[in-house]
Amino acid sequence: MMPRLLIICQLLVGFILALAHATPFNVVHPNRTLIVLSAPSVWDDNYREDFLEIIAFQIELAKTIHEHENVVIIADKHTMPYLDGRSARVKKRLPYDALIEANVYDVNINDFAPIGFKQLTKFIYRTDNLADMASSQIDKSMTRFLNDHRVKVDKREQDMVLSGEDVIHNGVNKALVSDNVILRNAGRLPDWAMMIKLLNAFKKVLVVENPLNGTRLRFDDVMGFIDEQILAVSPIEADVRERLETAVKKKFRSDLSLIDLPLGGAPNDAGNCGIYTSVISTNKYVYVPVFGSDPSNWKFGYSTMTDRMVVHLLEANSRRKIIPVNIPRALCRRGLSLRSIAWSVRGYAADNIVNHARQTALRH
Question: Which residues form the signal peptide (predicted)?
């Protein structure tokens, strides 16, 4: 009798311990934002040189985000072993409920994912950085992902082209849109029709000139909402900065303030290295890129001292918690930014993605 009782007790203890270690990575919660990342494909020649560094960074970013929000990484079946621990070339891994196997064809997922908070809208994705055929294939891969995983989108826009790189917003009631959008849709739609579609996705919209047209930087690199009422701006020409502030005050009056952030290193460095304004901002947190912890950046003038100064400045101007994220040079010299590689999702769409990841994990 005693041996049998002992065996039962051991089984119960084992079961309890198993439950303790089976805490889900993601939970469905109405106040949580889901951050979705798209891993580079192991077969993509564009990222071959920095593939392992990008994967390692995405794993670290996912673990940082997981402390506060839900997070999922999408990867194809050949790339998945580098994320789930089956490849010896990557030391760290993520649990299965933080991963979804699918073919999404680019890392910059925020550019071509559905966008908007008044209505979550899937616009047509095109970009000046790729041939129309290539951007069309990327766009179709996102559409397949949405359909296959039953992700609820309020509207699928059939006429208007809009890339996430040309939009910054506060997730609540304000959006700034680059005038590149007007040029891109010339001949497709009249200006008034474009504005209606933008207003349907975002409550209040201001179209502004791209502060750095003709440079290596993107519109969403040089400006970023820290919260509902604070817009951070990287160094730009004085006359452009003045026109931007005039337009913002005219549109939003005292409901939006601008703060200036410094550059982290050399003014003409590669990609978006040293640009602090390409943030991920959620309901309670702001994930801010910092550059001084990577030794590869030190010879270009980056330091943790400047990083700390920027973090303190943002903490003094926002009630949201500021979370610094170390950006390796392999990422920023390519022009990949925190905002471009991260799609922020809320509501039913987020719940569908989280539930799919958790159901997939149960099969493992």
Answer: 1-22
Domains of the chain (ranges; CATH) run 209-337 (3.75.10.10)
Quick: pLDDT tens for 131-161: 999 999 999 999 999 999 999 999 999 999 9
Predicted pLDDT at 133: 95
Taking the C-alpha atoms of residue 16 and residue 22, their distance in angstroms, rounded to an integer, is 10
Rounded CA separation 276/286 (Å):
11
pLDDT digits (tens, 9 = 90+) for 231-270: 999 999 999 999 999 999 999 999 999 999 999 988 888 8
- 321 to 165, 170, 342: CA distances (angstroms): 25, 15, 18
- Distances in Å between the Cα of 183 and the Cα atoms of 189, 274, 343 are 10, 29, 25
Report how far residue 102's alpha carbon sits from residue 214's, in angstroms, rounded to the nearest whole number. Answer: 35
Using CA atoms, how far residue 243 sits from 78, 99, 173, 209, 255, in Å, is 48, 44, 22, 9, 17
Query: Residue 14: is its pLDDT beyond 70?
Result: no
Strands 257-260 and 230-233, by their bridges, are: parallel
* Residue the block writes with tokens 């990609």: 271
